[in-house]
Amino acid sequence: MHQFSLTSTFLYFIIALTLYFIWKRRRLYYCSFKHPGPFGFPLIGSAHLLTAGPAESYNTLMRIAQYSPVTRVWFGPFFYLFISKPRDVEILLNKSVDKSIYYAKYLGDALKTALLISPPEIRKGRRKLINQTFNSNVVNSFVPAFTKCANRLADELDKVCKGTNDPPDLFDIIMKTYLDAGCETLADVRPDSLYNKEKFLATGYRYQKSVKYRFFKPHLNIDFFWKRSSLRKEQLEIGKVFEDFIKQVIAVKQSQPENKNSKKQFLNYLLEMNKQNNLTTDGLLEEGALMLLAANDSTTPAVGSALVLLGMHPEIQEKVYQEISLLTDDTQDLTLQCVNKMNYLERVIKETIRIFPSVPFILRKIDEEIELDSYFVPANCEILISISQLHRWPDIWPNPLKFDPDRFLPEEVEKRPRGAYLPFGAGARNCIGIKYAMLSMKVFLAVILKRFRILEAIDYKRVEDIEMDIFLFGIAKKGYRIRVEDRN
Ligand code: HEM
Fold it and tell me: Where, in this chain's numbering, is heme bound (predicted)?
């Protein structure tokens, strides 16, 4: 009798707890019933979709998001809304919503509290501080350094993409050049004074891969399993490699005479802030690692995609070449003034990152229920904004896979809703490196396209042939291979 009452009390307790759990999340369930999404089984939801494995990450996310403009999906008890309607995205990003907890969860073991994943109490001060190092005056002064690195990249292309039918993937080569550019500009150190650059880059790649693998193992969302997993051990090791590299950069920097003309350059300024106790040493190391990674991880696929797309579209390539030739002469290096006038090249870059945004998805967390243009989003909802889909809405971007830089003529831009094009995100957590990214990509492409004609994009005939893979960034599965010949 006594045993029976104990068992039934326990059962009542479990039932009450379950009902309370369901009651607390009732708005999530209501929202889930209201919106379409992939089929879900009891308890596991749509976790079966993850069996496609990491190699299919991009296609899996696209398959889930296909019910747009709003799609709901459960992975076990975890609920997500995917949204991709421009007006909804605009409203959401301009509200003071914060980043999803998944950024810190997935990236925090290696990058700790760096800006991309920092909690609000740390982020505000750091963002304000770092913003100053990306103002126009500072970034514009990088043109000579970008040009020097772009010329080195062009020399590499000369060696590997000319006179061969089997050129290598340019991804690693562009990435390496971008790291050199980051060292010259953000860190103000000579790249050849550093060792272990290759290890830093390879570790950055390993990092992205391990984050992606974790996503496909939903049980690793539970801290108990995560803390005991080999992937976590790997991420802690990765964090150590990042930290050691930045320590090396700082040591080299401190062995050099102080450069009084570049006080606002990223690392110089952060070191000064550290000296004045406005930034902790941990903060300095985290931000240094993040910035050297961010500066090349997102720009590399964008430059690679632009080269491939121009290889596929000779008439557009010719127009870019004409513009560059008109604005530059052979005797002088590129100047800021002439780069600023390369409007057609800028449109080519914008169109490239429309079709292939380097950051295909971003995540947000909603603390309070909000009304979007066409539906409500319940509190405590994780939202995935699909930039890839946003950029391919046929009613806003007719024939979305057509590579047409003139979509970015000012009169065309004016016709579109503001939230239709967000390669750099929007709102308080948008990309801090927009100016740096745009200027460096223009210089890199101007130098390459002035020197070479891209004859062909190997592996692809049409834009539709370019299949994407997602790590943290969107990267073409088959890479970026082109054949070139000298212009002169
Ligand atoms: C084609 C180039 C680039 C693209 C498409 C891009 C895109 C983005 C996007 C979409 C975000 C927002 C992420 C989110 O909302 O969750 C972001 C954040 C960020 N980006 Fe970029 N980015 C690029 C280049 C750069 C460069 C060159 C740097 C630095 C030199 C940089 C540094 C950052 C940082 C630090 C953040 C985090 C900002 C914060 O959370 O406050 N990015 N980027």
Answer: 431
